[in-house]
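Now for our specimen.

. . .
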Amino acid sequence: MTKVLVTGFTSRQCNPAKNKRDVMVSWLIAEVCRDLGYEVEHRNPTLEESYDDFDHVFWGMAPVHGLGSNRTYGALSCFLKTYPQGKISFYQDDHDNAKVANGIRTQRTEPARLTKRFFDYKLEYDLANTPEWKAFLQQGIEILDEYAWPTTIIPAFEWADLSRLTVKCPNLTDPVGVDFTAYLPEFEVETPEERERQWVVELTDNRWFTQQRIGWFAHAYGKGYDKRPEDEGLVREYARSWGVLNRGQDFGWWNSRIGYAARTGALYVTRWQNVETLGDAYALLPDVAETLTTDERNDWAQAQADALSKATSSRETVREQIRKLVEK
């Protein structure tokens, strides 16, 4: 049986239990691999293991010196031991990927930064801080800085502009956009006949939100507002609300919110340039949505769900994309 490892630099990339808070790219990759019949380990990388037992490794990228990159040493060792055999693919889970490239360049010019005392909280720090391991791990930095990276999964909708999503990572020369919408977790939720006339919003861009012409209450999650629930709780809130206000990510970077909204029948309002390819169903403005009757609202929500379904990847398509990487 094909054996696959899903790992990376951060706890979110290595710990499947973190998926409860917000669906993770690493968890989705692992789910697709299980669907393909592979044996999957989703866990931390370690310095001393050989990785010979694995047919393929999916390696999550993150800034080398990021505070959350507390698996840095194991991740670099994993890369160095699987890269020569060509059995590693990268994946990115943060659209601000310029930090990854910048961190590699900085580490290349300042080798002492890799194990400075400030990083003693990182896993296997004491072992990585020995001369032999420091020299070994620095080789990984040099390869990442000097050569093209392996094929890299970019979580992206089918209409994404991959050139815009990877422009700040010059070593990322072989991106594969994967739309994981079909693999979003399923939650059992009840939808009332009469939804609450309110919006649900996660405030990551207050400027965009204040530009929306809304007359109803907006249940806001974010700094200074309610703490965002785990995905299941967020989906339940979608299911009982009129609609969702979500700025989305630029250039087609994938996000779960539009998929969750479609599944629960919540209207979805976002920046037009992020969904223009989906057509008129997503050209909805909040002040118009607030004038709809319940039946009109339901019809519009169904039109959005239908448009999204036609424009997103099927499970079969996603499986084939991942299978090709493993069997490459």
